[in-house]
From TrEMBL, chain A:
It comes from Devosia geojensis. GO terms for biological process: transmembrane transport. This is ABC transmembrane type-1 domain-containing protein. Belongs to the binding-protein-dependent transport system permease family. Residues 70-265 form the ABC transmembrane type-1 domain. The chain crosses the membrane at residues 74-96, 105-129, 135-159, 180-202, 242-263.
Length: 281, 292
């Protein structure tokens, strides 16, 4: 682009250095995860399993019951994402009707929600979830961000690109709202739908504040909370319950696997969504 | 008008659950927060109106001023570096070739944006541990004698929160800038070539001005996001770092949920909302002024 040799060389240097800050720590995490307990406690840098072992994973599943948080998170992510996508699509569909009286008021209410970040209302959120008897339920995690202004606006932007004439003629043929959504908007605006879903999957998978706030029951523990207790448990001093680095790193590897499988398929949508989102805001 | 409403009545039915949701789980809690901030908190809930007493308590607690100060410093650091640094990889991504290398690098630097804070802290606590990679290199090269305890030092606490936040978001912001760079008209660069401009001059006089509108957008997103810093600082909070990185959002959590002092915590929450709205308002005004 700039046709300058020094800048091109510098570009490679900068990007490779930056990429190294992401790849090397991850590599070291994986190498530690596949080491024995004793090996992972040795001083020095572990860049290769020392010696190779699955001890960390074994401890994780047998002693710490790590399957449960995965199952809970899976449930919340799947149900939460489906509900979120459907409701956001509904919102986007309604806003697409420019002739709808009161549309600007509805859009105004939706935009207003952007000014109330959940981190600011943590305490009242706890109180309200308690009033609705949602504390200690996985449902609370599905309900938080059940629908969001960001997703509604993203859906609307994509729905607007569906040709009006096509919708008009389908309506002439007697297609109702749900048929229009199901057979026209959804398939024709599929990239938008997938984008919203991809962001929501990542969001639900990474939920941290909400379960911290709402869930005490150890049977309902979710992945990030379980991960946090393993990572912080590393400094635990009681000798018989000592969690060595190989266990901690094994937990991180396990938590990363679903994300890394999912990422290559969704990357296009995640990137498109963020540039669109960036422009919108 | 009435005919329009009648024709579209079902659309109102469709949007109703969404509006109801926002009312029940955003506006109502917000209202509850304001309400509770004027109530005396009892063990089983609010027990009566006490006026501004909770706010007086909030402002007479030295820790609150400390948390406001921490929030502002962290926010300033995250915004400054988080807005400016990603310009470098964005320009670099536009320069590298062939396409698969570009795409590969892009994928790698964007990845941390998808990681939760728990995972980020987990990864770096390994690499930055006293016997980890960074300390080993620094000690061996003779730059330091004692390993640095990055996660348990008052000096490093703020740089760690700022640095890791910037690192996590750098790919995300770089891709936003890159998208803007792709809309740069090649003719302009060619004209500069003919005028004999070198690469640095082109960056300074063409690329950066072209990115300016996007820089403003990223500035606003980053500023608003950083004022609500919770996860990152919360996970790095310990006895040695608490005074440096306890943010106002964390204070409301500790007071309200752990100590169950709902009145004071809600008042602090309202203060946090006010502070972020004021700062966002000022930022918007300044940006608009510049444009005019």
């Amino acid at each position: 682009m700039l046709r300058s040799r020094p800048i091109t060389i510098l570009s490679f240097v900068v990007l490779i250095a930056l990429a190294a800050t992401m790849v090397v720590p991850l590599w070291s995490v994986a190498a530690t995860a596949f080491s024995t307990k004793f090996g992972s406690l040795q001083p020095g840098v572990i860049l290769w399993p020392n010696p190779w072992s699955l001890e960390g994973f074994d401890t994780l599943f047998r002693r710490l019951n790590f399957l449960l948080p995965f199952a809970n998170t899976f449930y919340v992510t799947v149900v939460g994402t489906i509900a979120h996508v459907l409701l956001s699509a509904l919102g986007g569909y309604v806003l697409v009707h420019e002739e709808l009286p009161g549309r600007r008021i509805i859009a105004g209410i939706i935009l207003l929600t952007l000014t109330i970040p959940s981190q600011v209302i943590l305490v009242p959120l706890f109180v309200v979830f308690k009033q609705f008897q949602l504390l200690n339920t996985l449902l609370s995690l599905i309900v938080s961000e059940l629908v969001s202004a960001f997703s509604i606006l993203l859906m609307k932007t994509y729905f607007e690109q569906v040709p009006k004439t096509m919708i008009e003629s389908a309506r002439m043929d007697g297609a109702g709202h749900f048929k229009l959504l199901k057979d026209f908007y959804f398939p024709l605006a599929l990239p938008g739908v997938v984008t919203v879903a991809a962001f929501q999957i990542v969001h639900k998978y990474n939920l941290f504040i909400e379960p911290l706030l709402f869930i005490r029951d150890p049977q309902k523990v979710t992945l990030q909370i379980a991960l946090q207790s393993v990572i912080l448990g590393e400094s635990s001093t009681s000798t018989n319950d000592f969690i060595a680095p190989n266990v901690t790193m094994a937990a991180i590897v396990l938590a990363l696997i679903p994300l890394l499988i999912f990422y290559p398929f969704m990357q296009r949508y995640l990137v498109r969504g963020l540039t669109l989102g960036g422009v919108k805001e | 008008m009435l005919a329009q409403i009648q024709r579209h009545w079902f659309l109102y039915v469709l949007i109703a659950p969404i509006i109801a949701y926002f009312c029940a789980f955003l506006f109502y809690p917000m209202g509850q927060g304001v309400f509770l901030s004027f109530q005396k908190a009892g063990l089983l809930g609010p027990v009566g109106f006490i006026g501004w007493e909770n706010y007086q308590k909030v402002f007479s607690t030295p820790m609150v001023w400390q948390t406001i100060w921490n929030t502002l410093i962290l926010s300033a650091g995250i915004t400054f570096f988080g807005v400016l640094l990603p310009i470098v990889p964005a320009i670099a991504l536009a320069e590298v070739f062939p396409d698969w290398v570009k795409r590969g690098l892009q994928t790698i630097i964007y990845t941390p944006y998808l990681f939760s804070w728990v995972i980020i802290i987990g990864i770096w606590s390994n690499t930055l541990s006293p016997i980890g990679l960074v300390n080993s290199l620094l000690v061996q090269s003779g730059l330091i004698e004692q390993p640095i305890t990055f996660f348990a030092s008052p000096v490093w606490a703020r740089p760690m929160v700022i640095g890791l936040t910037v690192w996590k978001d750098i790919g995300f912001h770089a891709l936003i800038y890159l998208a803007a760079l792709l809309s740069l008209n090649p003719d302009v660069l060619e004209a500069a070539d003919i005028d004999g401009a070198n690469g640095w001059q082109k960056i300074k006089d063409i690329v950066i001005p072209h990115l300016m509108p996007m820089i403003k957008v990223v500035f606003l997103i980053t500023l608003l996001g950083s004022l609500r810093t919770f996860d990152s600082a919360f996970l790095m909070l310990n006895g040695r770092t608490a005074d440096q990185i306890r943010t106002l959002a964390i204070f409301t959590y500790e007071r309200g949920i752990l100590n169950f002092d709902l009145g004071v915590a809600s008042a602090a929450g309202v203060v946090l909302l006010a502070v972020s709205l004021i700062i966002a308002g000022i930022a918007r005004l300044i940006l608009r002024e510049r444009e005019a």
